[in-house]
Amino acid sequence: MTFGLAFWHRLVVVVFFTVAGLVLAADVLAPLSVALLLFVLLTAIIDRIGKIDIGGRQVPGWLAHVLGIALVLFGLLGILSILSNQAGDVAAALPRYEERFASIASRVIALVGDTNYAAAQSALSDLNIADFASGLLSSAGTFLSAFFLVLLYIPFMMLERGPMRAKIELASPDEGFSANLRRVLRSISLSLQRYMGIKTSVSLLTGMGSYAIMRPVGLDFAETWAVLAFALNFIPTIGSIMAVALPSLVALVQFETFTPFLIIVAGCGGVQFVVGNILEPSLTGRSLNLSPLMVVLALTFWTAIWGITGAWLSVPITVCALIVMSHIPATQSLAILMSGDGKLLQSTSEDADNQPGKPLHQTGAAPTPAQGE
What we know:
It is found in: Membrane. By secondary structure, the chain is mainly α. It has helices at about 1-25, 25-50, 60-110, 115-125, 130-145, 145-170, 175-215, 220-230, 240-255, 260-285, 290-325, 330-340, and strands at about 55, 55-60, 345, 360. A two-stranded antiparallel sheet has the order 1-2. A two-stranded antiparallel ribbon has the order 3-4. Strand 1 and strand 2 form a beta hairpin.
């Protein structure tokens, strides 16, 4: 009993200092984590370009690197250009939106009757859209301010990509540990590359589909809301809701009629539903295999730790933790509880790109070879 209490005391202390360290070092760790994800996306693009067959010959490595880096930089700079060009216009339009929203809300509140009107009016007076939107813009500005730090990390990560493999071999105490470490890193790399590749593609489709709905309606700052739809799609569950709610509220206060509001709610909501519930699951398959409850818990925890950046990183960090724990016998049971169906996948071939390996554990049966997706 004494040993058990001592263990739990140590566990609480470790968890406390770990969380405290994550919070205190957020300004360093959050940009570094974003840089790691962009590095994973960049390597996935480079590897994919390098496999393109042109006239019986593959694209040279140096050209694949140039094209991959140019593609990622072009995308990032395009997003920054849209946000920076329209940020001032959005801030200038906030007072007009607030006045229009107050007018609409007052008419709606009047429908509840004289009894509840005073209480509702008091609650409405406490709602300051300008302050709320300014807070969102401030959070976005803080995130964008770390962009240059992220760009500083990525070139050094690219330089370390090759030498790191040799250094892992030299640093490993024995051959078995080295092989297991390579297997873990390989599984993490393949899972994250697949996640980032698929998530970026479907998020791009979400942003383009939302823009195709908002632009013909004449919604103000449609480009900004499309970029936000792209970025928010990386945030589980709540991101899709926010991607529909924000432009819908703008449509509600911008137009005199409810028709544009209904079009954007139905159109953008339909895009989110098709992409999130039909297209993305069919592409992702079992490559992530996270429990829905674990996704929500991870989203809550990392949002509390790192804010919007933590929400964006919650799924990749949890995937990494799941893979690491699935390779450690002492934590495989916990990894099974975190997984979606209790089956943990492990890559068994160094050359099996984007292919899951055999299950590490299969509840109720002995391990069997995995079938292709």
